[in-house]
């Protein structure tokens, strides 16, 4: 028997749903709004929350956030009239959130409650908190990130996410979207994956017969996102000559589909992402300045995994529990293994960590409960940035010193005081060396 | 345009409410009949279905009126 909390403001529905849930064999309490739901949750423990999406004092997502923040872990089923919520739930990941679509049938309720009965056995109560339903980490850089997400989600400002490859830019985009509480979807597109010919059609849509192969009218991603979020991944990989078209949409808030004449108003927030560094954006001819200022009204730098090593055990725990839930296993980490994971550099960030854990999970002995880590974590991409500074026999000490100074200056964007500090020499010595090299222009 | 879209979304949401009630009341009736439970409960559920059908019809009419008004802004 489960303790169920039903949160819905339609009293006729809650009356009849209660009779059905009690008949199925569970105990049920009813809340008509978020306030009442929080009061119930403070009073007693629930195994399952059936939650209406639209409540008089907020969205069901606010309650999910409340549950996460307060370390309460009931299974949550969103009751929605909108199948589009599926896109949003993709961002809430975690195996403990699902949804059912109105109009409900008894089988829907029965199936979702039975699912919980089966899963509660598998889920470890020590699951780290999923902030905004998807972000893991309690480190200072992550706390700062959460504050930024919370603040920006209250506005309609466009956001540019920056960070190394694998830091989880799409997950952060989902977190921003979830935090807004909108029922409209998040639509993602990868600007780097689209050919020059297709990019306009993908972004702005096309009319029937606009070009060969356009057999039907198609809405672009701006229109499909509605009042939700449009996630433009690898936005800096968009051909520069296509960027003015994007600028026009961002400025005028309306699109004209390819081959069409009528303007369609758009109202989505644009969250874009790039793994290019700030200096690259400014120096290389990658993104037009006017587009940058439109897209990066609120730029967010996502920390790399090496900047938040203390979060590695939490991430490892979440990934392992997700794999356990998917595969009906119950592997656990030992403290030593978590220390090994923590000491690795993970140049591929969270993506590489997740990949390594998945690999270790597959390699582990099903008869043992302990996961088996490989002796070393080898990534073909590790250290690529430093290839130029590899040492080989035949080089002079002067060459190496010169290279070290160049790499250090690159790292600190040409800041000589900072570079001197990193090199362990005085700024004056650094200037002397640069002067001695003569042709060394930074 | 967006506020109109929001309005129509709200109207559609309002229509799903009674539909959901109809579905659940019908499930309740099925459950009562299958388990030989008191008929008066089933009768109450039937009456609620009839009322929800009226609500649904009203909501659909509002959507129809709204769509006409969207096409002809003078109305």
Structure commentary:
The complex is a heterodimer of chains A (442) and B (75). In chain A, the strands form five sheets. Chain A has a five-stranded parallel sheet, with helices on both faces. Chain A has helices spanning 11-24, 34-43, 60-69, 85-91, 106-119, 140-153, 169-180, 196-204, 221-224, 243-252, 278-283, 289-295, 312-327, 335-343, 349-363, 397-411, 416-423, 427-437; strands at 3-7, 27-31, 48-52, 54-55, 58-59, 75-80, 97-101, 159-162, 186-190, 205-206, 218-219, 229-233, 254-255, 264-265, 269-274, 298-301. In chain A, α6 (140-153) crosses α7 (169-180). Helix content of chain A is 43%, strand content 14%. Chain B has two helices and no strands. Chain B has helices at 2-34, 39-71. Chain B is elongated, with a radius of gyration of 17 Å. Classes of the chains: A alpha/beta (442), B mainly alpha (75). Chain A binds chain B through residues 10, 12-13, 16-17, 19-20, 23, 54, 81, 102-106, 183, 226-227, 265, 267, and chain B through 1-2, 5-6, 9, 12-13, 16-17, 19-25, 27-28, 30-31, 45, 48, 52.
Summarize this structure as a short list of keywords or feature phrases.
heterodimer; A: about 450 residues; alpha/beta; Rossmann fold; 4 domains; five-stranded parallel beta sheet; 18 helices; about 45% helix; globular; B: about 80 residues; mainly alpha; 2 helices
């Amino acid at each position: 028997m489960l303790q169920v909390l039903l949160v819905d403001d339609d009293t006729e529905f809650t009356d009849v749903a209660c009779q059905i849930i009690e008949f199925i064999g569970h105990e049920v309490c009813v809340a008509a709004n978020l306030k009442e739901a929080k009061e119930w949750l403070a009073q007693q423990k629930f195994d399952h929350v059936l939650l209406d999406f639209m409540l008089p004092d907020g969205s069901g997502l606010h309650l999910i956030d409340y549950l996460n923040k307060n370390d309460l872990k009931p299974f949550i089923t969103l009751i929605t009239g909108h199948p589009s919520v599926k896109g949003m739930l993709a961002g809430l990941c975690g195996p403990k959130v699902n949804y059912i679509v109105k109009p409900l049938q008894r089988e829907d309720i029965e199936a979702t409650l039975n699912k919980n009965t089966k899963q509660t056995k598998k889920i470890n109560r020590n699951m780290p908190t999923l902030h905004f339903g998807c972000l893991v980490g309690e480190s200072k850089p992550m706390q700062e990130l959460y504050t930024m997400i919370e603040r920006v989600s209250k506005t309609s400002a466009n956001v540019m996410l920056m960070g190394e490859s694998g830091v989880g830019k799409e997950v952060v985009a989902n977190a921003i979207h979830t935090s807004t509480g909108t029922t409209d979807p998040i639509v993602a597109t990868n600007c780097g994956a689209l050919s020059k010919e297709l990019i306009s059609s993908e972004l702005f849509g096309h009319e029937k017969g606009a070009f060969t192969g356009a057999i039907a009218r198609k809405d672009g991603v701006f229109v499909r996102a509605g009042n939700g979020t449009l996630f433009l991944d690898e936005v800096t990989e968009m051909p520069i000559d296509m960027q003015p078209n994007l600028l026009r949409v961002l400025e005028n808030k309306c699109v004209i589909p390819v081959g069409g004449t009528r303007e369609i108003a758009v109202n989505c927030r644009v969250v874009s992402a790039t793994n290019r560094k700030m200096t690259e954006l400014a120096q290389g001819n990658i993104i037009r300045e006017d587009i940058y200022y439109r897209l990066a009204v609120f730029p967010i730098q996502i920390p790399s995994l090496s900047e938040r090593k203390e979060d590695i055990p939490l991430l490892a725990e979440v990934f392992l529990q997700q794999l356990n839930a998917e595969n009906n296993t119950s592997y656990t980490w030992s403290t030593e293994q978590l220390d090994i994971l923590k000491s690795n550099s993970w140049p591929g960030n969270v993506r590489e960590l997740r990949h390594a854990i998945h690999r270790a999970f597959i390699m582990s002995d099903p008869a043992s409960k302990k996961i088996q880590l490989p002796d070393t974590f080898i990534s073909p991409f590790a250290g690529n940035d430093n290839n130029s500074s590899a040492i080989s026999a035949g080089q002079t000490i002067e060459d190496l010193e010169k290279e070290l100074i160049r790499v250090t200056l690159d790292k600190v964007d040409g800041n000589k005081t900072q570079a001197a500090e990193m090199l362990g020499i005085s700024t004056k010595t650094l200037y002397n060396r640069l002067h001695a090299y003569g042709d060394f222009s930074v | 345009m967006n506020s109109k879209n929001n309005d129509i979304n709200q109207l559609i949401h309002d229509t799903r409410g009674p539909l959901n009630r109809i579905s659940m009341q019908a499930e309740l009736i099925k459950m009562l009949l299958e388990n030989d439970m008191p008929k008066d409960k089933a009768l109450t559920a039937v009456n609620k279905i009839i009322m929800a059908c009226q609500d649904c019809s009203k909501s659909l009419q509002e959507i129809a009126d709204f769509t006409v008004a969207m096409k002809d802004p003078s109305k």
